[in-house]
Every structure is written in structure tokens, then in C-alpha cells.
Specification:
With 197 residues, the protein is mainly α. The chain has seven helices and no strands. The protein has one domain.
Length: 197
């Protein structure tokens, strides 16, 4: 009788262990599934940024910098602006793109997210082209001071936090990040560092 009881208790003791095995195997099987879209998103985003940097460096000799210089014809300027913005901004957007892919479970959502994000920066390029005028170093200095002051405002802090948070829309994410980085953008334009030829 005691032998039978011991065998019965031994079977009960092993039962939780048998029930736990499928859970461990399930986690081991699902981890790569969730990791794959994230890794793909990071690779696509950083690879595109690297390609854009190659284009930017290849055109460095064609850049015409200076506060008194006119911008290039609109199609040339906008193409150069879009490439430079992609090179500069995509590395910072890589974590958001990875989170978006992980949340949706599909890497196919990344191109749409990045297209929306870059469309915001491209629209800013259109505004820069429309508003740009040759200006003196005094005006450039005033704009630089204004850009620095903006960095200390609560608006900047709020937009920076939103830019670092998860966002399902590339356009909305781009608006937050563009608002956060508007001071730097104004500074670069004021100093003539974005006159791309």
C-alpha cells in the first residue's frame, strides 16, 4: 500500500514539471517571431540612413554654404534636402520604427511609418525654400540666439518627450520630432549650412 502511495505522490510531484515544459518551449519558439520584425526594421532604417550619408558625402564639394547665398533651383534643393534629412534623422527614428514593427508584428509597416516621418521633414524643406532670403551675419546671429532660447522652453521639453515616446503614425511622430528639433533647423539654415547644391 505504501509503495502504491509513493508512486502516486511521485506522479503528482512530476505533474507540474510536465505541465511547465510546453510553456518554456512556447516562449523559446515565439521569441524569434517577435524579434524578427524589430531587427528588420532597424536594419532597413539604418541601412537607408547609411545610403543617404554616402550620397551626402559624394556631393559635399557641390554644397554652397554662406548666409548671403541663394538656394539652388527648387527641384535640386528639395532633392538634396530630402536626402540630407533622411541621413540625419533616420538614425534617431530607428528605435521608433523598431517599436512600430514589433507592435504590429510586421516589418511591412516600417516603410509606411518612415515615409510619413520623412514627409514632414520634406515639407519643412519646402517652407525653408519659400522663406529663405540672403541675410546678414547680424540676422544669422539673432536667429541663433532665438534658436538657443527655444531649447529652454517647456514646449521644446514636451515635444522632445513625445518624440521619444511610442507613436503609431509616422507623420505624427515626425511632427513631434520636427517641433523638438526646430531650433537646430533654424540654426543650420541661419548659418547657411543647408544650402545644398
Amino acid at each position: 500500500m505504501s509503495i502504491v502511495l509513493e508512486q502516486h505522490l511521485g506522479a503528482d510531484d512530476r505533474e507540474p514539471e510536465r505541465r511547465a515544459r510546453p510553456a518554456r518551449n512556447h516562449r523559446a519558439m515565439t521569441t524569434p517571431i517577435y524579434a524578427a520584425p524589430r531587427i528588420t526594421a532597424l536594419a532597413v532604417t539604418l541601412g537607408l540612413a547609411a545610403a543617404c550619408w554616402i550620397v551626402v558625402f559624394s556631393r559635399t564639394g557641390a554644397m554652397d554654404m554662406g548666409v548671403a547665398n541663394r538656394l539652388d533651383p527648387f527641384p535640386v534643393f528639395l532633392a538634396g534636402w530630402a536626402v540630407m534629412m533622411a541621413a540625419m534623422m533616420l538614425p534617431g527614428a530607428a528605435p521608433a520604427a523598431a517599436r512600430r514593427a514589433e507592435r504590429s508584428g510586421r516589418a511591412r509597416s516600417v516603410p509606411v511609418f518612415l515615409a510619413g516621418y520623412l514627409s514632414v521633414w520634406t515639407a519643412i524643406g519646402v517652407a525653408v525654400y519659400a522663406l529663405d532670403r540672403p541675410h546678414s551675419t547680424g540676422v544669422a546671429g539673432a536667429l541663433a540666439i532665438a534658436a538657443g532660447a527655444y531649447e529652454l522652453t517647456p514646449v521644446k521639453s514636451y515635444l522632445r518627450r513625445r518624440c521619444q515616446a511610442e507613436c503609431h503614425s509616422g507623420v505624427l511622430f515626425g511632427l513631434y520630432c520636427a517641433g523638438s528639433g526646430v531650433g537646430l533647423t533654424v540654426l543650420l539654415v541661419a548659418m547657411g549650412l543647408m544650402s545644398i547644391g
